[in-house]
Amino acid sequence: MKLSNYKILLSVILVLTLITGSVTAGKVNLTFDHFYDGPAVTKALKDLNKAYPNLTTLKSLGQSEEGRDIWCLTINNPKTGEDTDKPGIYVDGAIHGNEIQASEVCLYLACYLLDNYNELLTITDLVDSRAFYIIPTVNVDNRSRFFEVATGYNIGRSAMVPYDDDRDGLFDEDDYDDLDGDGEILTMRIADPFGNYKTHPDDPRVMVRVKEGEQGEWTRLGREGIDNDGDGQINEDTPGYLDMNRNWGFKWQPPYVQGGAGDFPMSSKPVKAVSDFIITKPNIVFNFAFHNSGGLIVRGPGSKLAGRYSQRDVKVYDFLGKEGEKIIPGYEYIIGGQDMYTTHGDFDEWMFSNNGIFGFVGELFMSEQEQYRPPKDDKKVDTEEDHSYYGGTSAEERQKFNDFVTQGAMFKEWTKFIHPYFGEIEIGGWRKFTTRIPPLFMLPEMVHRNSALVLMAARHAPDIKVELIEVTNLGNDLRRVRVRLINPNAIPSLSNQAISKNIIRKDMVTISGSGFEIVSGGVLQDIHYDQVSYVEYRPQMVFTSVPSFGTREIQWIIKGKGKAKIEYNSIKAKNQTLSIDL
Amino acid sequence: MRRFTPLLALIIIAIVVFSTVSANQSQYPFITPEKIKGVLDRIVKESGGKANLTELAVTPGQRSLYLLEIGKKESGKPAIMVVANMEGNSPTATEAALKLANKLVGDWKGEDEDHIWYILPLGNPDGYARFFNVPSQALMVNDKPFNDDNDDAIDEDGAEDLNGDGFITKMRQLHPEGTMIVVEENPLLMKKAEAGKGEVGKYRLFPEGIDNDGDGEINEDGFGGVNPGLNFPHNFKHFTKTAGRWAASEVESRAIMRFAYDHPEIAMAITFGRTNTLKAVPESSRRSQASQSTYKLPRWMARQAGVDKDTKLPLSEIVVLGRELFDYPDLTEEQVLQYLDAGAAVNPSKKDLPYWKEISEKYNEFIKEAELVEKRLDPKSSRDGSFEEWAYYQFGIPSFAVDFWTIPEPEEEKSKDDSGLSIDSVEKMSNDEFIALGEEKIAKFLKDSGSPSQYTAAMVIQGLEGGMMDTKRMAKMMRKNKKKDEGSGADETEEALFALNPDAFVAWQPFDHPTLGKVEIGGMVPYSTVSPPTEAIDSLLESQLPFMKELAGMLPKIVIDRVDIKRLASDIWKVEVWVVNNGFLPFPTHQGQKCQRPSPAVATISVDLKNILDGKKRTVLKLLEGSGGYSKAEWMIRAPKGSKIKIDSHSFSAGIDQREVILEGGSR
């Protein structure tokens, strides 16, 4: 008894020391020499929240199918206003559970913003003038499982919603199996003179497709597993499949049109939780959703069904996308549905088409970065199947990179195994933290450059300035007041999508005061030619928006004089007031 | 309160002054959303344990969405889901659902032990609550606040009963911008002026009310938001006024779909509302990618298959190509359509249509026998984003909608020619009978009935022979043409309503409007087209509800029909099983096969995996057509002579069956 009480006391003291330790440190300095598993992501967020209680709030948006919390860290300086009064930047990661490094980008971004507040002028400005909503992990279930169960780099994309993949009336009954017990699901192959593959002449680990008429050596048997349900197929009904990035509401299509769509829009719990949250933050102007891989900065539309984006909005996308290409060398700015493949019901489409918010998907990491070649040799070869993941680096070259840069950590040698069904086979291949995921030494640069991309876009959130152009006496006690709204940044105060589909209230510019009455008001179409589109009713209140890198001029004609207050009120940008003397 | 403060006084006055019963809220004691719980509780109490009540959700207006469950649950027992009044504008539908529930636990007690009934008597309680409001205004939306006009305030500009008659009708104002004119034959009605006919537009129309927020718009942002009856994901329409921002955005639609997906025993959906797919089978006339006959291959597939990327191929050929390309012999047309990104189905499957047509004929006979012979206006077709469309197109089950009543068609003068042919009599003829009249008579009939001259008799005969046309569709087209030509130009429904009940229109009376100046207020009373005359309601329901039992009786019923045993070698046997569908409807529907719902029927053999030499222990049964359609399962097994084996057939919603056989020489 005594001993155990002592132990408890000791551990309490220990925990207290740890907590106070992390709080008093001031800086959290998250390190990126490792990947954060599920609990570690939560702990990092709690640490950040504890270290910066004045700048952050940490909130669980809801629970996943398996009961894990979906955390959102809001970074906002309340001294400069409520979060919803400022342009909001939304960033999330790992809506696909196996695309793990997306969470690290989010953690790095959060930590960088906080640790550099009052250190770097740019960061201080950004934190003071914007609100950041950061959800490091949307698919909390499968990202956690990536660290906890035997798996592979391509496994665990789905939400944990049971699905009868093979249409046999049973759900999730034939998962992968870690046959050799190494904690990873790798590839199986069997010696087969009639197989489609042979050993690469230069590297016995690499298989290449045989040419027509050529003798084969191997048949690929897919990923590690057995026929759990005795239906003659292997791994044909694994856990899931609901792809959370096909479960959103804009032009959602059912599973027979879009695989993984789920039962209906927002049927998965994390998607519902996140969408409910986003609806409460109409100030969001821009979103970034991180995935892997391919080194891409992707915008919509994802499908023909989603329709075209207007040229005014495309110009904004193009500006941000092309700046992004400069920040991350090698990454390409593309249009999802046109340059990649059709997607229905994805997050970005919902954000833009349904909510009028600009946004990108960031496909983190590209295996072109795993090079082993003399400088300036741009050869690009695809040899292995799944070539999209291997990009421009051939399998032999990757093996060299594996041998001499990562000291063999990436590939598991082919090893004999007696399979209950196939007999003697070999198991081996690229290990789980590879292929879509960078080697650890590349992680710090990846998280930094991608955070820099978000910060660039954040700087381009609308900062609207209001200035007085003139007060002109027209005689008969009439005065003409002209003001100008200026947006020096790329993101307009409202997207054209939001305006044309009447999604968000337009910016309101009002004039008030005593001693005068407002005769008319409106937006100046052309200040040089005096073209005004008059507001017929309530001329004191003009509804408008401020374009990308542009201005908007507003004119009132008033009768009388006195002190007037001009207020600019926007859902997205920060409100402004201007006092003038007439 | 917050929303209506400026109007409160007006409303109170309206309620006090006009406590007389209005034309739409007739004497029939419709059950209000507030009283429905009591009615349902009583049904549960009187059912003697047969019925249960569940609350599926709570609406934005804090009203409950109730679901009544009737019948004992058993494995394989099918359930019928009845959803009523999803749009909140169909009082008869809610009454029908409650009456049906009452009958199932009362009059019909013990008659139907083969089905479970899930009855949702009121799918849109918030919207339906407005039906009882005074002044009455046809708003079928729930109470979710919605900034319709995206200005600085929410729900700030609703309607007002300016003339205090208890109805929100219309205001008309003489104005150069006006596009409407008074119908000559009936000054209560208005129609759009047709410039091509020399008609000059005179009136602008507005809903009755004032510009509360001074923005120049009248009633542009009234109370509430979304019509959950338009919020289901099949053919959902974005950016409309009341369907919601996206499909499944509302608690009502989400709760109903969640319930359905959680209950795989649901085999059929019946919607009580404003549409009727029994009276007339939905036409398959929408254009869609999914019904194209030839397709271009996606680039990557064309490259791999060595086909030119611009060549269009028929689906059947792409399936063959795909099977080779993916080395996957089971590749189906449905899977290929997914690759081709052909989009969702928008027309009923051609292979399901014969079933729907037969059911429709049965229904029409049924109502004829019930002496509901009055000729009525065509029912409205199913709306985009409706429950009944979702149930068929995405949930994959047979889905029917019944409206119980539409306005009677006004008597039309019979145009008869010398040969005694009228559109009505032609409609009743078969194609062959009509063709047999001969070209001369047909030509005369076409001329007399005012058909456009380009429709020659020869052309019509050709169309009928080729199956592109039938007498019924022809009659419908001719009526439409005739109405266009000869009619007053007024709205068909309004004219018919006037013929039925002239009181459903408020005569136009001058009113001095605060911002518009001189206007007149009048027009159709809200909700006056939605429910039958009071005295007819009971008999309409009594006579049509029994057909729901008939529908239930048409569900697929899967049984093991025949088991053949052949001895191939000493301990080696071939087992062949024919599983047969004894119901009328197929399992699943052909659309269900396409959308991979519901869960398939499976035949299982009680033999260890290692002793099954060929065949799958659990064999998924392919689609079983109705009326005796079959699917076959076969196995080669190893077992000693005289062993007993069990064959099971299982489905969640079309029955389960079991057969025991002893392995003996010969067959059977």
List keywords for this structure.
heterodimer; A: 582 residues; alpha+beta; Aminopeptidase; Immunoglobulin-like; 3 domains; eight-stranded mixed beta sheet; five-stranded antiparallel beta sheet; 13 helices; 23 strands; 27% strand; elongated; B: 668 residues; 5 domains; six-stranded mixed beta sheet; four-stranded antiparallel beta sheet; 19 helices; 19% strand; globular; disordered N terminus
Give the class of chain B from helix and strand content and strand pairing.
alpha+beta
Distance N to C terminus of chain B: 77 Å
Low-pLDDT runs of chain A: 14-25, 381-390
Overall shape of chain B: globular
The major pleated sheet of chain B works out as:
6 strands, mixed
Binned, the helix content of chain B reads: 25-40%
Per CATH, which architecture of the largest domain in chain A? 3-Layer(aba) Sandwich
Physical arrangement of strands within the biggest beta sheet of chain A: 1-2-4-3-9-12-10-11
Helix content of chain A: 25-40%
Can you give a write-up of this model?
The complex is a heterodimer of chains A (582) and B (668). With 582 residues, chain A is an alpha+beta fold. Chain A has three domains: 23-146 and 246-365 and 440-459, Aminopeptidase, CATH 3.40.630; 162-239 and 372-434, no CATH class; 465-581, Sandwich (Immunoglobulin-like). Chain A has helices spanning 2-24, 38-51, 101-115, 121-129, 140-148, 269-279, 311-327, 336-340, 347-355, 387-390, 395-404, 443-459, 496-500, and strands spanning 56-63, 69-75, 88-93, 131-135, 187-191, 197-199, 207-209, 218-223, 284-292, 296-299, 332-335, 358-364, 411-419, 423-430, 465-475, 478-487, 507-513, 516-526, 531-534, 541-544, 550-560, 563-569, 576-581. In chain A, the strands form five sheets. Chain A has an eight-stranded mixed β-sheet with strand order 1-2-4-3-9-12-10-11, sandwiched between helices. A five-stranded antiparallel β-sheet of chain A has the order 15-16-21-18-19, with no helix packed on it. In chain A, strands 8-5-14-13 form a four-stranded antiparallel β-sheet, with no helix packed on it. Chain A is elongated, with a radius of gyration of 28 Å. Chain B is α+β, with helices and mostly antiparallel strands and 668 residues long. Chain B folds into five domains: 31-146 and 224-283 and 344-407 and 529-554, Aminopeptidase (3-Layer(aba) Sandwich); 170-218 and 493-524, no CATH class; 289-339, no CATH class; 423-486, no CATH class; 558-662, Immunoglobulin-like (Sandwich), CATH 2.60.40. Helix content of chain B is 28%, strand content 19%. In chain B, a hairpin with a 3-residue loop joins β13 and β14. In chain B, α2 runs parallel beside α3. Chain B starts with a helix and ends in a 6-residue tail after the last strand. At the A-B interface, α9 of A face α5 and α8 of B.
